[in-house]
Structure formats: C-alpha cells, structure tokens
Amino acid sequence: MRAPAPAAGPDPAPDPEVRRWIRRELAGAPPQAPSLIITVWGDAIAPHGGAAMLPGIIDLLAPLGINERLVRTSVFRLAREGWLKATPVGRRSLYRLTRDGARRFEQAYRRIYAPPVLGWDETWELVVANGIKARTRRALKLELQWEGFGTIASGVYARPATAPSAVPRIAAALAIARELVVVRARDDAVLGGRTLASAGPRAWDLAGLAAGYRRFLRRFGSVIERFRMAGGAGHDPAQAFIVRTLLIHAYRRVLLRDPQLPATLLPLDWPGAAAYALCRDFYRLTHRAAERHLLATLEDARGGLPPASAEFHARFGGLG
After folding, report:
1. Suppose 240 and one of 3, 98, 171, 289 were both cysteines; which one would form an S-S bond, judging by CB atoms 3.0 to 4.6 Å apart?
2. pTM for this prediction
3. In degrees to the nearest 10, what's the CA dihedral of 194, 196, 202, 206?
4. Residue 41: partners with Cβ closer than 8 Å, 6 or more residues away
5. What is the Cα–Cα distance from 291 to 40, expressed in whole angstroms?
6. Domain boundaries of the chain, sorted by first residue
7. Beta pairing partners, 85
8. Per-residue pLDDT for the chain (320 aa), expressed as one digit of tens each?
9. Which residues contact 129 (CB under 8 A, 6 or more apart)?
10. Rounded distance, CA 177 to CA 211, Å?
C-alpha cells in the first residue's frame, strides 16, 4: 500500500523569519553528515518502511547543508557499519535498514518519543561486576550507561527499576552472565549510611544534562513560536521538515545521555520536562506538513513511500 498523494492546493508560503533562523543555525552549528543522516533515518524514514532511493535522500538533505558527496560517503559508511544495506535498482541505489540497524534504531528512538517516567516504587536495580577484563568492563559500562545506569562505585552500577531489565541481554551479548551479580533492592534509612537516592549527583552528570537541556530550549524556543503564530494557517512543508529534523537531532544528542530518572530523584527546576514538552508540541503542530514534504521527496523501489506506521502516530503520547 502506497502513501496517499499530498492534498491538493497550494502550501503556505515559507516564513522569512524561519528561513533566517535556519540559515543562522546551519551557519553557526552545521550538523555532521553521518549523525544527521542517522537522525533523518530514525525520525522520518524508518516509520515509512526504512527504505529510500538515494537520489531522494540527496534532495531531502540538501537544504540541511549536506551536499551530494557527503550523503554518498555517509550512507556508504553506514552500510559498511551494518546500519544500512544497498540494493541496485536500475542505475540507482535503494538503501534499506538492515535487521540489526532497525533494532538499533528502535532501541534508541523509543526513548526519544516516550513520555517521561511518572511512577516509581523506589526499587533499584544493581549490577556488581568484578573480575572481568578491562576491555569487557568498559564495554559493560557503556552498555549500562545507555540503559540509564549510573556508577555508584568501581564495578557497581545502579538505576531506578522503572523498566524491564536490559541486563540479561547485555550479559549474554558480552558473555559475562556468570561474572555479574544482579539484584533489586530498596533504600533503608534505618541502616545508616548514604542512600542510593542521594548518590544521584555523583552517579549521573545531572548538572551537565540540565545545562544541555537549557541550551536546547534557548535554541529552539523562538523558532517554534513562529510556527505557533501560524496557527490554523498551516506551515510550509519544507520548513516544517527542516526545523523538525534539527529539533530532533539536537534533542536526541541530549536525551540519549539522560538516564531519565523518576521525578523524585531530580531537582525541582529540572528542564528535561520542558524540553520534552517543546518537542511534543512542535511535532503535533507540524507533523502533517513535514510528512507532506517527506512523501513528496522520497520514494522506494516501487514508487512513493508506504504510509507511516502506527508507532509513528503514537509518538509523544499520540499526535492527534
């Protein structure tokens, strides 16, 4: 099933203020091509089947300051690293997510669009790792950090138990299940000493994350107001797509370092919630316009892209 054709009628004219903002952003903080392509694939292409012809990808990324040579070099690199697979279609190339690439995208991007954790029963998940080789220990630490674990002491990692455990998968992948001790526990102030809840500032760089979120809010707050001002008048599809891409690109760079702790473990003025709300509101405001631009620019081997998945429409608690 192919995506429906864009609605008839002229699109709203580009906003000159938004155009100037985009120009300043790309001049002041030009995105790196491979990282931006990962953002575009995860945010925009994966929900439409995960495959697109290379000429369309080149056209899609040109307004973001990524020229044809950089696109070709970057997608070739992503294919070499196992994210994408190239298939010849006549004289052109179709690039598709590999099975492993799709899994890695899903793992990362479900965190971006998921609502913040609201409830927590104060249970912690702890991992104790002793006697493993230094290289494996570094790999374990990186994998656990990705899943929100903080370092409590040398070889001791903890996170609030708010989601199903990722430790069995990590331990199996690194072949160290017998070298780990994994427990669930709760603080008990009666026993004396410091609680796990008090270890947050040492285990996670909350100050650095807060600064990153505040920079993000300052950077995107004004341009999003321009889109809000348009209201029911609609939005230029190309501008909606470009700003959404830059927004999600910047947001994921902060969010994927965020352990997403329960609110009871965060400072009262924690800016992560405001950053999430800004992304949610902009996505809901512009997703129809951004999708029109995407569907008018890209195609797969059979023509236009398939419709967006149900998971796409469930992003940020539902796009409405």
Report:
1. 289
2. 0.88
3. -130
4. 50, 83, 84, 97, 105
5. 12
6. 1-115+204-320, 123-186
7. 96
8. 455 544 456 788 889 999 999 999 999 989 999 999 999 999 999 999 999 999 999 999 999 999 999 999 999 999 999 889 999 988 889 999 888 888 877 777 778 898 877 789 999 999 999 888 889 999 999 999 988 899 998 899 999 998 889 899 999 989 999 999 999 999 888 888 788 888 877 889 999 999 999 999 999 999 999 998 876 567 899 999 999 999 999 999 999 889 889 988 998 899 999 999 999 999 999 999 999 999 999 998 888 899 999 999 999 999 87
9. 137, 140, 155, 156, 157, 176, 179, 180, 181
10. 37
| Residue written as token pair 């925009």 | 44
Which tokens is 51 given? Answer: 């495959």
- Residue type, position 139, single letter: A
